Amino acid sequence: MTEDVSRETPPLVEKLFPRAAVPLSAYAELLATEGTLRGLIGPREVPRLWDRHLLNCAVLERLIPEEASVADIGTGAGLPGLVLAIVRPDLEVALVEPLLRRTTFLEEAVESLGLSNASVVRARAEDLPPASYDVVASRAVAPLGKLARWCLPLCVEGGLMLAMKGSSAEDELEAAEPELAKLGAELWHIHQLGVDELAQPTTVVSIVAGRAAGGSRHGRRGR
User: What whole-number distance in Å separates Cα of residue 21 and Cα of residue 27?
Assistant: First the structure.
C-alpha cells in the first residue's frame, strides 16, 4: 500500500532531526492518506514524500533565526510551514492559505500533531498586515518577482524572505533584481542546502527586506 512508504522513516531523518522524527513520520502518514484523498498531494508523490518534500523542506530551518515569527505563504498541504513548526519548536509559524479545503486539512493536521507553535490563517498574502513577520517563506508559489511583491512587504525591516526554488532560481533571480531593488530589498543570495546529505539539495533564494517599496536603496547580490 502507498501509505506504507511514508511510514518507513529514513535513517537520515533520525540523524538530522532526531527529536522531530516521530511527528515528521506522523505528518508523512497524514499526507499519504488524507492528503492524497483530498487532492493535496498527488498519489505519485507518496513514494518520494521524504526525499522530495519533507527533508527538502526541513533543511530550510538552517536559514531561520531562533524564535522567529514565520509566515508560509500559499502553504497548501503545509509545505514548508508544518515541517518547520515540527523541527523548530522555537518558531511561531503561520500557515497562510486562501482555500478552505486546504485550511481545513491544515487545522486538522495542527491539532493531530499537537503543534502549539503553528496557526492556520485563511487569507491571501495581499490581505495580511505589512511588516508582520521576521521570516516569510514559500515553496513553488509564483515567479520570484511576483512572489517578492507579495512577501517582502510582510517582512519586518531586516527580515528575511525565503523562496524555495528549482533549477530556474538563477534565471528568476536575475529577472527579478529590478523588482527587488524597487521593493527596497537589501541583499539577495542563492543557497544550496543539504548538498552532502540529500539526494536532491534544496535551492533557496534568500532576500533581506529593507525599506518599504519605493525606497531608493539598491540591493546587492550576496556572496
Answer: 10
How do residues 153-211 score in pLDDT, each as one tens digit?
Answer: 999 999 999 999 998 999 999 999 999 999 999 899 999 999 999 988 999 999 999 86
Grid cell in block for residue 162:
525565503
What cell numbers appear for 206 in the block? 534568500
pLDDT tens profile 38-75: 999 999 999 999 999 999 999 999 999 999 999 999 99
Q: Indicate the helix (H) or strand (E) that contains 63.
A: none
d(Cα 74, Cα 88) in Å, to the nearest integer? 20
Q: Which domains does the chain have, with CATH numbers?
A: 59-221 (3.40.50.150)
H or E stretch at 142: none
d(C-alpha 190, C-alpha 16), whole Å: 22
The crossing angle, in degrees rounded to 10, of helices 21-30 and 100-113 is: 150
Q: Which residues contact 156 (CB under 8 A, 6 or more apart)?
A: 131, 132, 133, 134, 209
The mean of the pLDDT values for the chain is 91
Interior CA angle at 202 toward 197 and 206, to 5°?
Answer: 130
Q: Helix crossing, 144-151 with 169-182: angle to 10°?
A: 40
Cell readout for 139 is 515553496
